[in-house]
From TrEMBL:
N6-(pyridoxal phosphate)lysine: modified positions: K344
Family: Belongs to the threonine synthase family.
Gene3D superfamilies with a match to the protein in the record: 3.40.50.1100, P-loop containing nucleotide triphosphate hydrolases, Threonine synthase, N-terminal domain
A cellular component term, taken from the record's GO annotations: cytoplasm
Alphabetically ordered keywords of this record: Amino-acid biosynthesis, Pyridoxal phosphate
Organism: Anhinga anhinga
PROSITE patterns: DEHYDRATASE_SER_THR (PS00165)
PANTHER family: THREONINE SYNTHASE-LIKE 1
UniProt key word Amino-acid biosynthesis: yes
Pathway(s) annotated for this protein in UniProt: Amino-acid biosynthesis
Cofactors that this protein relies on: pyridoxal 5'-phosphate
Designated name of the protein: THNS1 protein
Length: 736
């Protein structure tokens, strides 16, 4: 496997008090250095000569929090309002505002910032300082900007109690709420660290500020391990830590395991989650992903740019992932509003930009993908939207079962091909495609040959890649927050989620959201007739002996080997990598394994499972359409059937609607009992559209199917040497 050495920013070494011995130790043994630094840090200023700059709206508590932080760190505290502006102007801020007016005030305030200089201090900005670009650039040169992110409703309440009804920049006819919302764009532009505040005491906010700064300065603590690595092996390999940018690039761990964060995922308090109930989807994504990705890997400003590119004009619904009431206590989480009409778009509109940012410029990359249907078109579309310069160094090769996807899915994958993205049909099933890619990644002779001969490294975009899971955590959390925002439940009340499941990535993301503090009571795993997961969750026996993959109406979950289950087993086994390695070696060699009783009991506390026949799937589509006018896709119908059977109706249940029904038109037309079906996919969509269904036929699919040349793609035999030869040919054609 090609390995990239990344030079991560280490701002800690700016401290003058570090001895040359420590500096040399840092270069040779980063973990030992981190331990020395931890001891050193306990008796020194948090950021040395750097300033801690508190930023936020008026009423955020910047002045009070600044004083507490300064006292804890025993360093100077400067309030821009009191100590800089009023001293410079020889008049109060309110008098200056009355004297010169809004626009001139902002300019005068900015000029005062440009003349200001300090080091090793805690500085509390005014609420309007961030609106002056040059002034903020000057401040950031020697400071870490901490954004005290307080919900607008809390700020409004505080300002009302302070009898403040106007702030800087507020013109006649513009409400206080509107100007507060307007200012957020400026706060988001400048911060390095965000602290979710809510309506909590200043002392608590100050502690959160210090915790956030410690995290900002200690990226070495956020490392990743393999699900198959032993604890003793980890201790021996500490000098070879993997960070987020590494695992995005490498995809699969060298030992065949999957990467997971060594210290687990971050926890949000109930108050932090509640502060996001009024937020938009992209705002929630920004906050959640900032906590999961260290700024040394992707700074907050770059992350915002990536999220904006992923969820901007590419999604047809402004809510991105809306929650729709279906019937009774059942709600649908609509995950099909992206460009390729499936939940895969949530990760795969974002991951290509993350990948392009994380990889070094000195190497070309070929991203390999195996798909059971939806992943392929989503990967091709996502990487096809990269900037032209990135397309020249990043290409994608998508393997799919030639006869194991729906006709529209195949047309879509072929239609999504770009100058740097190709589809290859394989004369086998998805499990062969996925296993083949894993074997290619662990074949060091082959990957080494590609690196030496062609300067090209391989990477993965399947859900084995850690970055694929993070955006999925966001939509599970957001769905719960939407129910709270709509008044369906108060925060803290539990919900169940039911997810059509094949490779276990989507349901794993829901389990991760639960770990992070979202009150999910249980996750319901919904299978079709390929029900190996249902059997496993009920019995603890994962048994592939004698099983053959059954082609169904829900092909995206026609999977027998569920890759991401490995991450969940590692979690409930208390990170016992040796046990996980033993289980998966047994599965590989003997075709089965069995969980010990205590682990099965842990699993069953979180997950229950059921499966759905083909007949019941079609019947559910017909029944829901007859009663509501809404059309479920085949995968969502599987989840609906299983939810009806397993839910106890004591709390709401959120059913993940993972794909748009347009992708499975023949099955949908059959479920609706339409007998005369034209074999042309475009004609099928037009026929469905004539029924004025909810939701409407997906525009992106229509546009893709209208493209000419949808029949052009490569097809190859289910043979490893053939696949490897195709990969080498593609590399020669694209990169050479």
């Amino acid at each position: 496997m090609f390995h990239v050495v990344r030079y991560r920013p280490l701002r800690l070494i700016t401290q003058n008090s570090l001895s040359s011995m420590c500096f040399k130790l840092m270069l040779s043994r980063p973990v030992a250095f981190a331990q020395i630094w931890k001891s050193w840090f306990s008796s020194h200023s948090l950021l040395g000569n750097k300033n801690i700059i508190l930023m936020g709206p008026p009423g955020a508590g910047k002045t009070t929090v600044g004083r507490i932080v300064g006292q804890k760190l025993d360093c100077p505290v400067i309030d821009i309002d009191d100590d800089v502006l009023e001293t410079t102007w020889n008049m109060s801020v309110s008098e200056k505002l009355q004297d010169v007016g809004n626009e001139q005030f902002l300019e005068e305030e900015g000029k005062a910032l440009l003349k200001f200089s300090a080091s090793g201090s805690v500085i509390s900005l005014t609420g309007s300082n961030p609106m002056h670009s040059a002034g903020m650039q000057h401040m950031k040169k020697n400071g870490i900007v901490v954004y005290l992110d307080v919900p607008t409703a809390v700020i409004m309440s505080r300002l009302k109690s302070m009898k403040v009804d106007r702030i800087v920049g507020q013109s006649p006819g513009i409400s206080l709420k509107d100007i507060l919302q307007f200012r957020k764009q400026f706060y988001k532009r400048w911060y390095d660290v965000r602290v979710l505040c809510g309506d909590i005491a200043a002392e608590v906010v100050a502690e959160k500020v210090l915790d956030a700064l410690k995290r900002y300065q200690n990226s070495e603590l956020e490392t990743f391990i393999s699900t198959r690595s032993s604890r003793s092996g980890r201790n021996m390999e500490k000098d070879f830590c993997k960070y987020f940018s590494d695992v995005v690039t490498e995809g699969l761990a060298p030992d065949g395991g999957l990467f997971v964060p060594e210290r687990g995922l971050p926890k949000f308090t109930a108050g932090e989650w509640q502060s996001l109930t009024e937020a938009t989807y992209t705002e929630r994504a920004q906050v959640i992903l900032e906590r999961c990705i260290h700024p040394a890997d992707i700074p907050a400003s770059k992350l915002a740019e990536i999220i904006g590119a992923a969820y901007g004009e590419n999604f047809t619904c402004s809510k991105i992932a809306p929650v729709r009431h279906l019937a009774g206590n059942q709600f649908l989480l609509e995950l099909f509003h992206g460009p390729t009409a499936s939940f895969k778009d949530f990760a795969l509109q974002m991951v290509p930009h993350i990948f392009a940012y994380c990889i070094p410029r000195s190497c070309n990359y070929l991203v390999l993908v195996a798909t059971s249907g939806d992943t392929g078109s989503a990967v091709l579309d996502g990487f096809g939207r990269l900037h032209d310069t990135d397309k020249q160094r990043i290409a994608v090769m998508n393997f799919f079962p030639e006869d194991g996807v729906s006709p529209i899915q195949k047309s879509q994958m072929i239609g999504c091909q770009k100058e740097n993205a190709w589809s290859v049909g394989v004369k086998s099933d998805f499990d062969f495609c996925q296993t083949a890619i894993k074997q290619i990644f662990t074949n060091s002779d082959y990957t080494g040959f590609l690196t030496v001969e062609y300067g090209t490294a391989l990477a993965a975009a399947n859900s084995i890649n850690w970055a694929r899971l993070l955006p999925q955590i966001v939509y599970h959390a957001s769905a719960y927050l939407d129910l709270v925002h709509q008044g369906i439940i108060p925060f803290g009340s539990p919900v169940d989620v039911c997810i059509p499941t094949g490779n276990f990535g989507n349901i794993l993301s829901a389990l991760y959201a639960k770990m992070m503090g979202i009150p999910i009571r249980q996750c319901i795993c919904a299978n079709n007739e390929n029900n190996v997961l249902t059997d496993f969750i009920r019995t603890g026996v994962y048994d592939l002996r004698g099983r053959k993959l059954i082609p169904t109406f829900s092909p995206a979950i026609d999977i027998l080997k569920s890759s991401n289950l490995e991450r969940y087993l590692h979690l409930i086994a208390n990170e016992d990598g040796q046990l996980v390695a033993q289980l998966y070696n047994q599965l590989e060699n003997q075709g089965h394994f069995q969980l010990q009783k205590d682990l099965l009991e842990k699993l069953q506390q979180d997950v229950v499972a059921g499966w759905c026949s083909e007949e019941d799937c079609l019947a559910a589509i017909h029944s829901v359409y007859s009663t509501t006018g809404y059309i479920l896709d085949t995968h969502t119908a599987v989840a609906k059937v299983v939810a009806d059977r397993l839910q106890d109706r004591t709390c709401p249940i959120i059913i993940s609607s993972t794909a748009h029904y347009s992708k499975f038109a023949p099955a949908i037309l059959r479920a609706l009992r339409i007998t005369e079906i034209n074999q042309n996919p475009l004609s099928q969509l037009h026929l469905l559209s004539s029924y004025s269904p909810l939701p409407p036929v997906h525009w992106g699919l229509l546009e893709t199917l209208k493209k000419k040349g949808n029949e052009d793609h490569q097809v190859c035999a289910a043979d490893m040497s053939t696949l490897m030869s195709r990969i080498e040919t593609l590399i020669q054609n694209h990169f050479m």
